[in-house]
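Figure 2 data, in text form.
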Amino acid sequence: FPADASETILAQMRPREDDWTTQDLALSWYPDASGIAARVAVTYDPTHVSAKPTAPIQSASGRLVLTRHDPTQALVDIQFAWLGDGRPPSLDLGSLQITADAPVDTQLRLLFDVRHGATVRRWETKVATRFEPPPAASRLLSNYPNPFNPETWMPFELAEEASPVMEVSTVDGH
């Protein structure tokens, strides 16, 4: 097994630039020489969030992929089996579209099973994500703790993508 089981399956959240209510969860598997099967079960809180498969990989020569989506149990289950000869290829297990109906902080629970020969390795992780609309207007927020400390934070919000520039000067303009 890899020293860290998370090296075997990669889960990556990608917010959509054009729609704050939707994010994509991409799943990839990088099996070692003995990996022959993998399963990822994704569960979520259906109160404000829904999930559905968007781009499942198709079964092909040497591989079998099964995807099950059960919104009543807030579950998406993806299973992959390598039936070919030799080492299974690294592959994209597909992606899920995660959608929120309101601004919310939420967690996805990912359960992993990876079969190596006769041994199964199981683990889980949680992916925290935030759904929030972009600010309506750009604004500079109050700095903290205050400008007389050795350092200060000056937060800002941008209504649209930009490359902000900050110039700091003394009271006399230098």
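Caption note: DSSP finds no helices and eleven strands in the chain.
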